[in-house]
Design a protein that fits this description.
The complex is a heterotrimer. Chain B is about 40% helix and about 5% strand. By secondary structure, chain B is mainly alpha-helical. By secondary structure, chain C is α+β, with helices and mostly antiparallel strands. The longest helix of chain C has 25 residues. The chains are: A mainly alpha, B mainly alpha, C alpha+beta.
Chain lengths: ~475, ~120, ~800
């Protein structure tokens, strides 16, 4: 009896350790086969014990089943119930699903279970500590993103998880990409960000639920290919949790399928008020009161103020009052400054795309766009400079934090470019290029972290091509070639 | 948002004064509101702005008094207090902007949120 | 509490201090045990540890300087303790100031029978937060429970305004202290006082008059005795000190007489000449001649202040003089004559500040008597009303907080004790509160009886039964003397409180971190520097505190781009506290590090002085080349100030901390002035650069560029034109950088470019960080050049560039700020 118990324990331990040791590109590899062979033997043993009427055999078979399909067991039983330690322990030996990064997979399992458990601090600290110590592949990024989500920092979670789809090869297990896409889709649907969801590639690494959400989003925003009713129904039927998505399907089916109107400058109806100053104030108040102001409203407010500032009765009244108060400055100029500050802030907070068309070239809106552009460039330079200084002084962070810093700078650059257009992009790219290139070179040469450095060079190359910066294109082509 | 605070904190709104208020009226109103706030009187606790009802605090009142003592700063606030009533009671300017499709909680069914 | 209130105001001066009390109607200067209204700010501790303060201590200033300390006010806010050798004790500047305050507090008790527990203390208009905090700390050490600080010009204006019978208008407070000159423009409108503006000269003071007399005396001695006494000669230090002392006395004597004799306590002893006793008689006419250049300098500052605020000197309603040196009739007459404004008479320039502080104590209801015994009569009222106010119709707001044994009051009205006014009868609201408007008699203490009635109309007793409101000039809440903000990583300042903000004040802003702070890392720390000053560039403002978020104190790594909600709070005494909430960590940080005036390290000061001198020289050469006369004037002034700093630096090297601090502050001021000069000529330079860049880059792109580059360059050229039209410096700099980069891209295609760049780089290899490697590269480069392999030559040249010294221009200036 004792001998059998020792053999069983050693066998199960060996099977677990073989799974843990697995770091192979292909599946099944040597370790995977070895693990399964041992597990097969143990299963036979367990089966014979059951046949002999020994109940211990059932326990052996259960453990063998767990070690044979660790991810499936964790995903079905442990993660939904928030058992983060067991999920982590089990998935560490995953030799099939997470065959090339079972450490990362185990952390994903632990982080996901922690999210389900309401984010117990011990679990989050456990995942974080392990992520800090690792080389940080896509699975680690997913785990880190889930930890951020558990803490309520969804902005950070979106950044982490959104970035991991850029990774390729061994650094990016298929399951990590699939889960990341599912999380991104679920998050976008929850926020009502259907346009963003419709842009996801439904053919690459997506599961049935994600594909269904993408189809619904395309229907809502009219993005091609717009799914027909039948296609929506089919997509919905393939989702395991389809009962819970019935309401969404019904909404999508009721939605009129029509292509989205091409982007155009929508002009707001002019505010009709006999006093332009009062009309401008009303429009301004509505803009500031709006929880999600849009560009159309901003344009309307700017135009209302342009009319007020062109109204001689208003300007005379304001100047006369300034004379009565014996002020020194020009009251119209200070009003303009305050107005610009308000509108820049609204545009910035709402991340409005102001663009570069003729509607924003003149008047209040023109000033707002220029001021916003300058401010975004100033901030970008400060962040880029801080990163450059840190790299120069060799103050290293954990790899996943380095990646986050890169994502932050990249995000700042992208949002600035999106808001103000390609002219700003050409001005902004040199400073971003210098800082990120310095970071990537440091990671590549000194810290031997080529996966992340390569991704950075790839992104720099794509941006250099957009800016048509011949020098940077040549440089980053060489850098990207090195990483292939 | 600072733009909202800037407008909602307009000294004329905080002190409930007309744009024509004299320096003495400013001091008098400020002193009255400070006294009422110190005594914790309910009618001093809030004031109305075009952006809705706001809480009145001693700091806001003191700052409002200082702003209106300085002619330069007072001149900067006057053009913004023509509108005294909340914007919600005024007809909004017409806009062609349309509301998007509301969101759907997909995190729960896919088990990405808390149990 | 019984009797009249006791409002205490203290002028804690550099040389002398004074205390005054205000009883609600008039001010009274409190005399010390020697019967003088002024107590010298001097502290002595003898070998037995006995502390002596005031004139008794001042007598030992020359005889026993190691155990007698004066002028420690200038060191307020620094952390260096001052030693008293005989007793072995060391006292910090706030502890020394506390000794003076204790003595003044004792004088009040001796004269008025009550030891005050609250007071208003005046501080110089340009005091920084650490200095204000140190002053408040001194008051606490001296036993005051409550203290408020008030800028000196406002205190003087309040005192002058309180007694003045004049109507509205603008007036000037001319404050000439021992070492600094401050001038403030104030305005009264409808009886309300407002500070319009402030200016000053940190290098001008009564001490300059004394030194002018000393210089005159040494010239006379040289002429009559053939002895040359030099101020900068250490061997002549004793003689110089004697002459200075005599000059101070003669200056005071000349305010009453037409002539004064410079009497020395002992004959002058000069090495090689023996002892001699010169007879020097200083006449008023001579003093006037000596004073003239100094007064003219002060008048220049006055004119600048008036011009800044569009005020003609002739429009001034009056001039108020403050400070010992303004006692000189010659000075008063000359200032009044040049500015063409009347002088406010009947005001004592030596105690005016203390009187104003006492009046302000009444405004702030800082009754120095403390809480008296509680006597209950009828319903208890909680009342709010201004103890002092300018408004003739203020409100009395009240609430019944305890009904007492009888019925609750239903209606209330107030009756003025002179019978001239009865308020409307007000019915108490649901909160048992009332708001009643009363009318005051101008410039009097107005007492009102509170008449409370029940529902049946019967009069009820209330506690307190009366209220007293004094009508007169007030300033409201104490204003902040200098703006306070946070230095951002971009070297800009996020202003939290502007100058003049009423205290107390509290404001919050959200900042974003620009770099990550690694958890548990000893060398990783996020700094949020808090600065004070009026400059929009952070490095020109004074650092008054730093809130730090260290790596060892955070629960997990704080990434770049995280929000930090920072709240800064100032109390009525000018004490600052800061609180940073980091939502990403769910942690709060409150520890503000080193809220002190930075130490004046003489080596650093000397280096700064040398740098600024070189900057002045460079700017002057450039200004001559361009014929910029106005800039030359500023530079001349800066040069004069640098000479003063050099003198202070010499004194600091000899152990004079006060001089070191003065040098530090003044170097910052000069730095700011030179910055302004540089900015004024920045635009013309930038325009020239724009022309050069467009010409060069345009040429390169036309010759070697692609079609796409030509189109891009046209876009950039248009953007450059736009930036020039808007005079947008930052935008123009960025566009020029882009144009330059595009030009370089085209230029690098020219086969002749890389040999030239390689030659330029190889000529600098002596400075390379790795010389052997650089030499090897040069050899490789020559070989590549020889076989016309320009691609290889370019690769080698770029490697060489990396070995050459880095451009230090990116050095961060903004106190290492980690937020934007």
């Amino acid at each position: 009896m004792i001998v059998r118990a020792v053999v069983l324990t050693l066998g199960l331990g060996f099977a677990w350790l073989v799974g843990v040791a697995n770091r192979e590109e292909s599946r099944p590899g040597f370790f995977g086969l070895a693990q399964w062979l041992v597990l097969f033997g143990l299963a036979v043993l367990g089966g014979s014990m059951v046949l002999d009427g020994e109940l211990v055999g059932l326990a052996v078979l259960t453990v063998v089943a767990g070690l044979t399909f660790p991810w499936a067991v964790a995903r079905t039983w442990l993660i939904p119930r928030g058992h983060w330690r067991s999920a982590w322990f089990l998935v560490r030996s995953s030799a099939w699903t997470w065959h090339d990064d079972n450490r990362g997979g185990a952390l994903v399992a632990a982080a996901w279970a922690a999210v389900r458990a309401g984010g117990p601090p011990a679990a989050l600290a456990f995942v974080e500590r392990r992520c800090e110590r690792s080389d940080c592949g896509a699975a680690h990024l997913l785990a880190t993103g889930l930890v951020a989500a558990a803490r309520g920092d969804l902005e950070a979670a979106r950044r982490w998880i959104g970035s991991l789809c850029e990774f390729t090869g061994k650094a990016s297990p298929q399951m990590a990409r699939r889960l990341a896409l599912q999380w991104i889709a679920a998050d976008a649907a929850t926020r009502g960000a259907w346009s963003q969801l419709a842009q996801l590639d439904a053919d690459r690494d997506v599961d049935a639920a994600t594909a269904a959400l993408i189809a619904v989003a395309r229907r809502f925003v009219g993005a091609a290919p717009i799914p027909t009713d039948a296609e929506l129904e089919t997509a919905w039927r393939s989702v395991p949790q389809r009962a819970q998505f019935r309401a969404l399907l019904d909404r999508a089916l009721q939605h009129q399928a029509s292509p989205a109107a091409p982007n155009s400058v929508v002009r707001a109806t002019p505010v009709v008020d006999r006093d332009p100053h009062r009309a401008a104030l009303v429009a301004h108040a509505h803009l500031l009161s709006h929880p999600r102001p849009d560009r159309v409203e901003l344009v309307a407010v700017a135009q209302a103020w342009d009319r007020a500032l062109a109204d001689q009765a208003f300007t005379h009244r304001t100047q006369r009052r300034a004379l009565e108060l014996a002020t020194r400055g020009d009251p119209i100029e200070s009003l303009r400054a305050r107005l610009d500050a308000d509108l820049v802030e609204v545009a910035r907070t709402a991340r409005m795309v102001l663009g570069e068309d003729s509607a924003v070239a003149r008047g209040t809106l023109g000033r707002v766009r220029r001021t916003l552009g300058q401010r975004l460039l100033d901030e970008l330079e400060v962040v880029a400079d801080a990163l450059k200084t840190r790299v120069r002084t060799r103050r290293a962070l954990a790899i996943h934090e380095e990646w986050r810093e890169y994502l932050t700078l990249r995000g700042t650059y992208q949002s600035a470019v999106a808001m103000t257009g390609p002219v700003l992009q050409r001005l902004a790219f040199p400073c971003v290029n210098e800082s990120i290139c310095a970071l990537a070179v440091w990671l590549w040469n000194d810290r031997k972290n080529r996966v992340h450095a390569h991704q950075m060079f790839r992104w720099l190359l794509s941006e250099a091509e957009k800016c048509e910066d011949a020098e940077a294109i040549a440089l980053h082509r060489r850098n990207v070639e090195c990483g292939r | 948002m600072n733009a909202v605070e800037r407008w909602a904190g307009n000294p004329f709104f905080v002190l409930e004064l007309a744009v024509t208020a004299s320096r003495a009226e400013v001091e008098r109103a400020g002193q009255k509101w400070l006294a009422m706030l110190e005594l914790g009187l309910a009618r001093a606790a809030i004031y109305t702005t075009p952006l809705g009802v706001r809480a009145r605090t001693p700091e806001l009142v003191r700052t409002a008094m200082a702003e209106l003592r300085d002619p330069e700063r007072r001149a900067g606030h006057e053009p913004w207090c023509l509108l005294q009533e909340p914007a919600s009671v005024i007809d909004p300017p017409e806009s062609t902007a349309s509301e998007g499709e509301p969101g759907f909680d997909a995190m729960g069914p896919l088990q990405w949120s808390r149990r | 509490m019984t009797g009249r209130p006791l409002y205490v105001g203290i002028d804690l001066g550099t040389t002398n201090s004074a205390v005054a009390v205000f009883d609600g109607e008039s001010t009274q200067v409190v005399r010390n045990a020697q019967g003088s209204p002024l107590t010298p700010s001097v502290v002595r501790i003898d070998a037995k540890g006995r502390v002596t303060v005031g004139s008794a201590a001042r007598r030992f200033l020359d005889r026993d300087p190691e155990n007698t300390r004066s002028e420690f006010k200038r060191l307020m806010g620094t952390e260096r303790p001052l030693p008293f050798r005989a007793s072995g004790r060391e006292l910090t500047p706030p502890e020394l100031a506390a000794e003076i305050l204790k003595a003044l507090r004792g004088d009040v008790r001796d004269q008025l029978g009550s030891l005050p527990t609250a007071a208003v203390i005046s501080v110089p208009a340009l005091f920084e937060l650490p200095q204000s905090a140190a002053t408040a700390e001194a008051a606490r050490l001296a036993g005051f429970d409550k203290v408020e600080l008030l800028p000196e010009p406002i205190a003087s204006a309040l005192a002058a305004g309180w007694t003045a019978e004049h109507g509205d208008g603008r007036w000037l407070v001319y404050d000439l202290g021992g070492g600094t000159f401050d001038v403030s423009l104030l305005e009264t409108d409808g009886g309300f006082l407002r500070v319009v503006g402030h200016d000053g000269d940190n290098f001008l003071g009564g001490r300059d008059v004394d030194w002018a007399i000393v210089d005159w005396a040494t010239a006379m001695i040289e002429r009559e005795h053939g002895v040359k006494i030099r101020r900068d000669n250490p061997e002549h230090a004793a003689a110089t000190a004697q002459l200075k002392h005599a000059a101070e006395e003669a200056k005071v004597a000349l305010s009453r007489a037409n002539e004064a004799v410079l009497t020395m306590p002992a004959p002058l002893e000069i090495a090689g000449h023996g002892a001699f006793d010169p007879e020097l008689v200083l006449g008023r006419a001579t003093l006037e001649e000596l004073l003239a250049p100094l007064v003219d300098r002060s008048l220049e500052v006055c004119r600048r202040l008036l011009a800044d605020h569009h005020t003609d000197p002739g429009q001034l309603a009056r001039i108020v003089f403050v400070g010992g040196p303004t006692v000189t009739p010659l000075l008063r007459a000359r200032v009044a004559q040049v500015l063409g404004a009347p002088v406010a008479d009947g005001l004592d320039p030596m105690t005016l500040v203390a009187q104003g502080a006492a009046i302000h104590a009444a405004t702030s209801a800082l009754d120095g008597r403390g809480a008296g015994p509680l006597v209950r009569r009828g319903a208890r009222l909680w009342l709010q009303f201004p103890a002092v106010c300018t408004d003739l119709s203020p409100h009395v707001v009240g609430r019944v907080v305890e009904g007492g044994s009888g019925p609750m009051p239903e209606r209330i009205h107030l009756v003025r004790d002179d019978g001239g006014f009865t308020s409307e009868v007000t019915t108490l609201d649901a909160e048992h509160a009332f708001v009643v408007a009363v009318e005051l008699v101008s410039r009097h203490a107005n007492t009102f009886t509170i008449v409370a009635q029940d529902a049946a109309g019967a009069v009820l007793a209330v506690d307190p039964p009366t209220v007293t409101i004094v009508q007169g000039m007030t300033i409201g809440d104490p204003p902040l003397s200098r703006s306070i903000g946070v230095a951002l990583a971009s070297d800009q300042v996020q202003v939290y409180f502007e100058r003049g903000t009423p205290l107390p004040a509290r404001r919050s802003f959200t900042h974003v971190t620009v770099e990550s702070v690694a958890r548990a890392s000893a060398d990783s720390v996020l700094k949020i520097p808090i600065v004070q000053g009026e400059h929009d560039r952070a490095h020109l403002c004074r650092l008054v505190g730093t809130l730090e978020i260290p790596g060892h104190a955070i629960a997990r790594t704080l990434p770049a781009g995280s929000d930090i909600e920072l709240t800064i709070e100032l109390d009525r005494g000018g004490r600052m506290s800061a609180r940073a909430l980091v939502p990403a960590l769910d942690q709060v940080f409150e520890h503000v590090a080193h809220l002190l005036v930075p130490a004046a390290d003489t080596e650093v000061l000397a280096a700064s002085l040398a740098t600024l001198r070189k900057r002045v020289d460079d700017l002057r050469a450039d200004a001559f080349r361009r014929g910029m006369a106005q800039v030359l004037g500023t530079l001349e002034h800066a040069e004069h100030e640098l000479a003063e700093v050099a003198r202070d630096l010499g004194a600091a090297l000899g152990g004079n901390d006060d001089a070191g601090q003065r040098a530090r502050r003044n170097l910052l001021e000069i730095d700011a002035a030179l910055d302004e000069v540089e900015q004024s000529k920045q635009w013309p330079e930038l325009e020239q650069r724009a022309v050069r860049t467009l010409t060069w880059a345009g040429g390169q792109i036309a010759y070697l560029g692609t079609d796409r580059e030509r189109a891009l360059f046209e876009d950039i050229a248009r953007a450059i034109d736009g930036a020039r039209q808007e005079r947008n410096v930052r935008d123009l700099q960025r566009q020029l950088r882009l144009a330059n980069q595009l030009g370089e891209t085209a230029w690098y295609r020219d086969p002749d470019t890389w040999p030239a760049l390689f030659d330029a780089a190889s000529s600098r290899i002596d400075a390379a960080t790795d010389l052997p490697k650089a030499q090897a590269l040069v050899r490789e480069g020559r070989a590549a050049n020889g076989r016309n392999d320009y691609a290889e030559l370019r690769r080698i040249t770029e490697k060489l560039w990396k070995l050459l010294p880095h451009d230090p221009s990116a050095q961060r200036q903004s106190y290492d700020s980690g937020v934007r």
